[in-house]
Design goal:
about 500 residues; alpha/beta; Guanine Nucleotide Dissociation Inhibitor, domain 1; about 20% strand; globular
Amino acid sequence: MKSISIIGSGLGGLSAAIRLAHNGYNVTVYEKNSYPGGKAGSVNIDGFRFDTGPSLLTMPFVIEELFSSVNENASDYLEFNKLKNLCRYFFFDGTMLNAYSDLIKFENEIAAKTIESPGTLKKFLEYCKTIYNLTSDIFLFSDLYSAKTYTNLKAFKTLFKLPKIDSFRTLNEANRSFFKDEKLIQLFNRYATYNGSNPYKCPATLNIISHVECSLGGYYLSGGMHSLTKAMYALAIKKGVKFEFNCPIEKIIINGKKVKGIIAAGKEIPSDIVISNADVFQTYGDLLNDNTSSAAKRYLKLEPSSSALVFYWGVNINSEKLDTHNILFSKDYEKEFSELFDKKIFPEDPTVYIYISSKFSPNDAPAGKENWFVMINAPNTHTASPEKGSKPTKGARSGGADYIKQTILNRIKSFTGYDISGKIECEKIMTPQDIETQTGSFGGSIYGISSNSSNAAFLRQANASKQYRGLYFTGGSAHPGGGIPLVILSGKIAAEKIIDNN
């Protein structure tokens, strides 16, 4: 059996480990933390449980395929539940709009609360579906950098219909061509944040995300999102994957251009193959000590995705006005993204996201109380300018955290009527610096590089390294990108490349 060392136990690494162990490889996962899952973690505070990262599940068939590929049933490990309401949106003019999973109900909600004509949503989602149908096989489910990907009929059809993937307009420009109401434009512009990008710069191809969530559906997992990490970890153990926790990797050993193993805790560990589920920036800079190869230099020039500032609040409240997923929009969305990506400061008027898993998982909070995961978009710490801009740029570890917290509390009170300032029973803060420390994400960048250019999809790290034989990449900073289904697919693509090449 060939030996495989996997750096990091995020969902991408677990996905690859499960498939490779099932196919007879000797797989060991090395994790610097004491627990598996990477960003898809969990924390318990004074009787409140919080998912630390991903909060919404899409494309559950990707998870089902992972389990079935190793002769297991996902339903034996996980319970998928479709959301009736994808998200509750609150706007500055007082409008509250529900994005129902039932598209007829969603259209009726739009007709009742906006100036949009009936049928506009259906037309828009048909356009989004076209992009998905043309691009998903190449950009999501296959190795984008393999010639074999482009030899089938569906790939040829995509190549002949390139204008239909809408890569030359920005997301905002495309959405404005469909909608007249500023609230709907803001709502669908929001999907750029699903991979840490700017809707005023990223290509309209990202409207694929609107199709995935609105048409294919949004889901939650019984027990919270961390149940996915627990299920994949249990499956990996069952397949014979070995885990070494509290074991940070110091170096990837290279002989010439061939991987020879890793160094962990000062000890050389020979490996035929190494999979890095760590951030691509960290892999090149820290583990390979490579700042000179073409791939390393190219990656260092790319714009990182946004980060996040998260407050985990145990709240003594029963918030009937809020749903599982809630967005409290900023008044000037374009200004918010300009501050994030151009000025590189914390937004003065941030959009606030509130996720309450106790709405569907009552054990996540004591009776009559709720667990609030409250997040705003934040600049990547390696590009943030703390000496410029508004007060929040003092940083989330100094006076800036209190300023931002008060801004969020004021927004919640203004939009929902709930004054929770005296009802927060416990609190934990996750800053971009914390995200970088705990997950190895470059500057706290949640999704690796941003998609703020028309060719961004082609700039992500390939799953098989072209510079170093035997080195492979998984996770949100590699192809096909961030988000639960995509990082699981990154593990699949990497595993398939290894099996084909060995």
